[in-house]
Specification:
This protein is α/β, with parallel strands linked by helices and about 400 residues long. The protein contains 17 helices and twelve strands. Helix 12 (about 290-300) packs across helix 17 and helix 13 (about 300-320) packs across helix 14 (about 325-345).
Length: about 400
C-alpha cells in the first residue's frame, strides 16, 4: 500500500486531528455543575451528555442492582425509565471492545442502532428520549434489566446537580449524574456552574456561594430577568459570568439558545460554552438586551407553536381525519417548515408565497388567517412575553 493511500485510510479511520482529540479529551475531564435541577436544567444537561451521538450507550446491570453507598454527602442512584421497566426499550448488540473484569459491558443503544438508517434518510438529530426508535419485535425480546446512559464528550460522572430536595434530582440520577443537597459542593467539584434556580431564589443562592467562587469558575445563569450586572454585583470581583436563555426543545437537541457575556468573560469561555450548548440545537450570541426578546420569541414561542399545532390537528379532525394521525402530520408540517427556513435561508414570506398558487387551496386558507389577524396576534404575544421578561428583571 502506498504511503499516500495509507495516509488516506488513516484520515478515514480517524478523521479528528490531534488538536481535536486533545479538545475532546479536555471536555471528557470537564466537570459541569447545576445549581437547581428543574426541567430546563435537566434538558440542558441531557443535551450536554448527548454531545457526540456515537457515544450513546447502555450499561447492563444485574437483575437486582446493588445500591452504591454514599460517598461523603454525594449520592448516586441507578434508575430505569418507566419504558425500560416494562421492557419497551432494549439494547443493541454487545460492544466488541474488551472491558476489565467486574465492570459492566457497554452496549450500543437501540436508539442508535434503530435510527442510524433513518437518520441517513432524513438527517434528523438522534432523539434524546429512551425508547424512541424501538420496533415492536425488538421491544418484545429485550431485557427489563437495561439502563441507558448517554456517554458523549462530557461524562455523566462529571455532571453534578444540587437541589433542596430529591424531587427534582430524579432526572439527573436517571442520567447517572452525581447529586447533592449542597450548593457549595457544586462549586468545590465543578468548573462550569449553571445557575438554574427560579429568578426570585437566585439572589439568596448567589450570596450563599459567593465565598466559594474563584477565578477558575465560569458561572452561567439560566434565570429569566436577572441581569449580568446584578449577577456580577453579588459575586466576587472578576468572576466570569454569562447568561443564557434556553428553551424546552433542547431536550431533543432542537432547542434555541441566546447567550450574552459579562464584563470579565473571555473569548475562550464563550467558545467552551458554545461547544457545550451546540448539541442543544441553535446557539447564538448577542447583546444582553436580546435575552428578553428571545424569551418572548422562542422561550415562550414553543407554547405558541404547540397551540398552532393543536389547532391544525383539530381542523383536520373536524374534516374527518383521526386525531393521532392529524397530530403527527401537524407536527411534521411545523418541523419541515422550520427546517426549510433554516436550510434555505429564505425569508418566510418568500417560502409562503412559493406554496400559493393562483386560486388554490393555500391562498384561500391564508385569507382566513388574515381575517383572524394571525400575524398581528402572534406579534402581540411576542411583545407581551418580552415585556413580562423585562418586568421580572426590574424586581
Amino acid at each position: 500500500m502506498s504511503s499516500a493511500l495509507k495516509e488516506e485510510v488513516k484520515k478515514r479511520d480517524n478523521p479528528a486531528g490531534p488538536w481535536q482529540i486533545a479538545e475532546m479529551e479536555k471536555l471528557r475531564e470537564l466537570r459541569v455543575g447545576f445549581i437547581g435541577a428543574g426541567r430546563m436544567a435537566s434538558a440542558v444537561a441531557q443535551a450536554i451528555l448527548l454531545a457526540g451521538k456515537a457515544g450513546v450507550s447502555l450499561l447492563r446491570h444485574p437483575e437486582t442492582p446493588s445500591q452504591e453507598g454514599q460517598q461523603g454527602r454525594w449520592h448516586r442512584k441507578w434508575l430505569r425509565t418507566p419504558s425500560e421497566r416494562t421492557g419497551t426499550f432494549c439494547p443493541g448488540p454487545a460492544s466488541s471492545i474488551n472491558h476489565p473484569p467486574g465492570r459492566p459491558r457497554q452496549f450500543q443503544s437501540q436508539n442508535q442502532v434503530g435510527n442510524q438508517s433513518k437518520m441517513a434518510e432524513d438527517n434528523l438529530p438522534l432523539p434524546g428520549s429512551p425508547g424512541v426508535g424501538s420496533s415492536p419485535h425488538t421491544q418484545a425480546s429485550c431485557s427489563k434489566t437495561e439502563s441507558w446512559r448517554p456517554d458523549g464528550e462530557v461524562q455523566a460522572v462529571n455532571i453534578f446537580a444540587s437541589a433542596p430536595s430529591n424531587r427534582n434530582l430524579d432526572k439527573f440520577q436517571t442520567f447517572e449524574c452525581k447529586t447533592t443537597h449542597s450548593n457549595l459542593e457544586i462549586l468545590e467539584n465543578c468548573t462550569i456552574v449553571f445557575l438554574a434556580t427560579k429568578p426570585h431564589v437566585l439572589p439568596a443562592v448567589l450570596r450563599e456561594i459567593a465565598s466559594a467562587v474563584t477565578k477558575k469558575h465560569v458561572v452561567v445563569s439560566m434565570a429569566a430577568g436577572v441581569t449580568l450586572q446584578a449577577l456580577e454585583e453579588l459575586l466576587p470581583t472578576g468572576t466570569k459570568v454569562l447568561r443564557i436563555m434556553p428553551n424546552l426543545p433542547c431536550v431533543v437537541q432542537s432547542g434555541a439558545i441566546v447567550l450574552a457575556r459579562g464584563t470579565c468573560a473571555e473569548e475562550e469561555d464563550v467558545a467552551l460554552l458554545k461547544r457545550l450548548l451546540s448539541h442543544s440545537g441553535l446557539c447564538e450570541e448577542g447583546p444582553e438586551s436580546y435575552i428578553d426578546i428571545h424569551t418572548g420569541l422562542s422561550g415562550s414561542g414553543v407554547a405558541y407553536a404547540y397551540m398552532f399545532a393543536e389547532a391544525l390537528a383539530e381542523g383536520a379532525v373536524k374534516m374527518g381525519m383521526p386525531g393521532p394521525m392529524a397530530q403527527k402530520i401537524a407536527a411534521q408540517t411545523l418541523l419541515g417548515a422550520g427546517r426549510m427556513i433554516l436550510e434555505t435561508g429564505e425569508h418566510p414570506a418568500v417560502l409562503r408565497s412559493a406554496v400559493c398558487t393562483p386560486g388554490g387551496t393555500t391562498i384561500h386558507a391564508l385569507h382566513e388567517l388574515e381575517k383572524g389577524s394571525l400575524r398581528s396576534t402572534v406579534m402581540n404575544a411576542v411583545e407581551a412575553a418580552t415585556c413580562r421578561a423585562q418586568t421580572l428583571g426590574k424586581r
